[in-house]
Amino acid sequence: MPGITLNDIARGLGYSKNTVSLALRSDPQIPPRTRNKIKAAAERLGYRPNAVVSQLMAQLRSSRTSRLQAKLALVNANLDPDAFHSHPTIPIYVEGCQKRAASLGYDFDQFWLHDPELTAERWTRILNARGIKGLVLVGLMDKNQLPAHLEPVWRRFPCVVTGVRTRDPALSFSCVDHFNLAMIAFEKALELGYERPGLVLDDVIDALVERRFSAGYLNAQRLIPRARRIPVFGDVDGAGGAERFRAWLDRHRPDVVFTLYNSVFGWLKAAGRKIPESIGVIQLEWRASRPDIAGMNQHNFVTGEAAVDMVVGQVHNNETGIQEFPRSTMIGATWVGGSTVRPQGQRKAPVGLAKVRRA
What we know:
Elements: H1 6-13, H2 17-24, H3 32-45, H4 51-63, E1 71-76, H5 83-86, H6 90-103, E2 107-112, H7 120-129, E3 132-138, H8 151-156, E4 159-162, E5 172-176, H9 178-191, E6 197-200, H10 203-208, H11 212-220, H12 241-252, E7 256-259, H13 263-270, E8 280-283, E9 295-297, H14 300-316, E10 328-331, E11 334-336, H15 353-358
Helix pairs in contact: 1-2, 2-3, 6-14, 9-11
């Protein structure tokens, strides 16, 4: 098959491009089993190296002088080994990390956190051999705990997590300010004239961010009378979600919903609600791939940049990932208008925010 590249092999097997390149050169840093697996895949796919490029790279390697390599590890913490390319939002974090690292004079080697062959001892050996000074973990979305068997790595190297706060161990992290995001979204809905905002959010996701989404939403409900406060719909996942949502919708009659899921649009349509005529929708994570949907831009690119700044700071201060006082950097979200809510000024709020607060 013509045109197969190292990236194709790496994506197919769930390894980094650098690992594939080293394996195909029979580098001893890569275990024999992994080398054989990668070579077999390359042969099966019909991979053929470019002779001119191979010769040039060999010359560059032979001419290198020993010097300190300013390198970091970019770790895919998602269960999907291809999440850096296939996930709808993770690549934005990655882009921010890479741009900031380059501006600071650092390069990245990529790893997959869930690689079954990645033991703490082997990973430590590889990181030391490559002169890698710190790690940035991106894409942790199923739970906020890291594999226990890798704890020696976090104790030895500077580490920062993006997106969520981890526990056992608790590492320094950068993420959007979920609490403030939910508050701003609620206040924006009131400015647009909505009276009964509702939150549709999987309880698992809310728990992953320590319920900062629902905490911001429930706190913002103090801006409206008790009679208009709607409980969170958190039973999103699993069979029957659409039916449970329909029952919640009919009972509480929200006129705008905050959510993270595109499936809500189909549920609303099935329930006979027109968007935005009869109900508005506000995404809590606005995406450039759907610019028509109103929502909150979490600025994941900036979160990635902040993570690199943090881990470089740890490197300079000779700190490790597990610290007595883990630090956090919260990124502010901003409102992005769209066609899923009524136009600004079309309908005024029934009472001013000052009066609502006293209600």
